[in-house]
TrEMBL record, chain A:
Component of the ubiquinol-cytochrome c oxidoreductase, a multisubunit transmembrane complex that is part of the mitochondrial electron transport chain which drives oxidative phosphorylation. The complex plays an important role in the uptake of multiple carbon sources present in different host niches. This is Cytochrome b-c1 complex subunit 8. GO terms for biological process: mitochondrial electron transport, ubiquinol to cytochrome c. It is a single-pass membrane protein. Gene3D superfamilies: Cytochrome b-c1 complex subunit 8 (1.20.5.210). It is found in: Mitochondrion inner membrane. Belongs to the UQCRQ/QCR8 family. The chain crosses the membrane at residues 64-81. PANTHER family: CYTOCHROME B-C1 COMPLEX SUBUNIT 8, UBIQUINOL-CYTOCHROME C REDUCTASE COMPLEX UBIQUINONE-BINDING PROTEIN QP-C. Component of the ubiquinol-cytochrome c oxidoreductase (cytochrome b-c1 complex, complex III, CIII), a multisubunit enzyme composed of 3 respiratory subunits cytochrome b, cytochrome c1 and Rieske protein, 2 core protein subunits, and additional low-molecular weight protein subunits. The complex exists as an obligatory dimer and forms supercomplexes (SCs) in the inner mitochondrial membrane with cytochrome c oxidase (complex IV, CIV). GO terms for cellular component: mitochondrial inner membrane; respiratory chain complex III.
Automatic annotation (TrEMBL), chain B:
GO terms for molecular function: metal ion binding; oxidoreductase activity; quinol-cytochrome-c reductase activity. The gene is cob. This is Cytochrome b. GO terms for biological process: mitochondrial electron transport, ubiquinol to cytochrome c. One of its GO terms (cellular component) is mitochondrial inner membrane. Its main location: mitochondrion. Residues 211-381 form the Cytochrome b/b6 C-terminal region profile domain. Heme b b566 binds at H96, H197. The keyword Cell inner membrane does not apply. Binds 2 heme groups non-covalently. InterPro entries: Cyt_b/b6_C (IPR005798), Cyt_b/b6_C_sf (IPR036150), Cyt_b/b6_N (IPR005797), Cytb/b6-like_sf (IPR027387), Cytochrome_b (IPR030689), Cytochrome_b_C_euk/bac (IPR048260), Cytochrome_b_N_euk/bac (IPR048259), Di-haem_cyt_TM (IPR016174).
Amino acid sequence: MRPSVARQSEMPGPKVYSLWWGDRTIPKQKGVVEYTISAYRAKAAPHMLRNYLFNGYRRLSGELVFWLIPFGMGYGIYTWAKKTDAYHHSKAAHVAAGVEHD
Amino acid sequence: MRLLKTHVLLRFLNSYVVDSPQPANISYLWNFGSLLALCLIIQILTGAFLAMHYSPNVDFAFNSVEHIMRDVNNGWIIRYTHANVASFFFIFVYMHVGRGLYYGSYKSPRVLVWSIGVIILILMMAIAFLGYVLPYGQMSLWGATVITNLLSAIPIFGVDIVELIWGGFSVSNATLNRFFSLHYLLPFLLAALALAHLIALHVHGSNNPNGVTSNGDRYAMHPYFIFKDLVTIFAFLLVLSVIVFFYPNLLGHSDNYIPADPMVTPASIVPEWYLLPFYAILRSIPNKLLGVLAMFGSLLILLILPLTDLSRIRGNQFRPAMKLAFWFFVVDFIILLWIGSQHPESPYLEIGQIATTFYFAWFLVLVPIIGIAENTLLDVATADKTNK
């Protein structure tokens, strides 16, 4: 098969995005640009350390403020509830509530 | 190459997992789809092998599971894998939904994808619940009793429906049999819905972190994203192996190793961890019928997001207020999960009620208000100043 046949078919690629289970009448999306390089040139995980560690840290640290406030409050509620619950089940609480304690 | 593009069936494979152009900028948060597909395949395969040795009878069910664990060659691996992948299934599906919430994947034109996804989520929960009943331990029996009894809250014919589901006057042999039958059948419906999820997705393609069209910058699914999906698939298999081989009962409840006994109620009846947030919502509302409605409503309310998210911007990448609101929602969900595992007493009861209120308010109040505020600020900032 000549490469141009595949390129001009309704198969997904730069000219076509969708394929509705054999239906050729679906409107084609225009302006899909697809980049690719030879498989012999592609590296599986280029700059893995730099990307995953340093750039990952840079990206995640920017979000830190959005995590700290909610999770901080959540942890505060958790510890307060644990403390309150422990008190409710303590002798001191039973005495304070006027409940008989064996 | 020619066959892959022209064969009547292979061309679908080609158009979905080989040539399909994907946004170049999708992050690892877009990997949960493939992980979920893998989970479904593992569950169906291990489930089929478990069914070869399992006996859906109240007298034999518990012992047949022990038989699988002790006598069947590698039966323990199959059973522990099935039990733990169920948990990972939910971890991934919550992350998948969270990704959708964060990046506005529910917004037009992907409303159909989102809606099918919500149905899949509800069906998954039903399947997981049915599966948990099958070993017929204490928590199986009493969990089934509590959850099926919820339907008795339906006015007039509620009790009739519950007895119809039971096939008797309590959770019994007939119940176990039909639960087994449905637990085997429904995953195939789930697989069909997952396929529909994919078909709907491929009409407009994946969303991306920026929330604007990615038509101008795409890579082919293979090899770029196939490789990237494999990274998380192998990471998952590694973690799964550690759990299955070293901590297989970490996420289970010890009471389910006691054979079901209708005469002994466990000290506390708790569902599997992934159902706890919704269990907490159920228990937060004193009225039984309203509690049941709130529980189902807490899942169905996901469907309303395409309507209540009024922001003109898709996704939270460039919306700091919504980012904060999103993480508050995540924390609220975790709090509900924790509350669901506690006894319904003060202060857990009150925290559960506030968290339930916040859960619904997030969808119905917070999301639209933040959207309107942002749109207004945008209008003010871009208004024509020359009219002054």
